[in-house]
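Narrative summary of target 7.
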Amino acid sequence: MRLVIARCHVDYDGRLTAHLPLATRLLMVKADGSVLVHSDGGSYKPLNWMSPPCAMAEVPPTQEEATDGVTQVWLVQHTKSEDRLRVCLHEVLHDSHHDLGIDPGLVKDGVEAHLQKLLAEHIHTLGDGWSLVRREHMTAIGPVDILARDHSRQHVAIEIKRRGEIDGVEQLTRYLELMNRDPHLAPVVGVFAAQEIKPQARVLAEDRGIRCVVLDYDALRGIDDVGARLF
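Modeled conformation, tokenized:
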């Protein structure tokens, strides 16, 4: 991972346009190719970013940019779309590289792990003819909760959360991008499953062709007797 603290301004162009004016920010370049722009606030979310697959090149500033004080430019281009990020650095305060090694992945809490186990045992609740391939299918960036096949025998990657938010959709998107490079798995589609899915996460998932499923924990455990309901 490369960590750079610099005074910079950032322009994003693609499905929309966005501009971050000149300020001191943390720039992260991860081993998977992703580039993230962070401020010293706003919780854990970056102000802007580019997810892989993408390519980053360091190019000289234009004459106008150099006149304005820009010393170097990062040009980040997504390889499957027209989305691009242009990071103009005015002053670099810190620049370091760190090898973080292989990450073992997120350790699930009790409820989330139990949801994964229950859904794997009752994978047919996602559709007739569905079958389980395996739990914790490993990728280069971590394990997908469940790998399954649907009624047409197409592979499906399922990410499970207690509460589905945007970062979970981004996580599943990265898994799908990697898995679809494997000719033995592709094409792979995604299912984002949670007890509660935030509206913004649902919009993002559906925009990326990912199916959203709200899980009923009690029903999966067999506690919720459907026959005893009034409604």
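Residues 223-231 have pLDDT under 50 and may be disordered.
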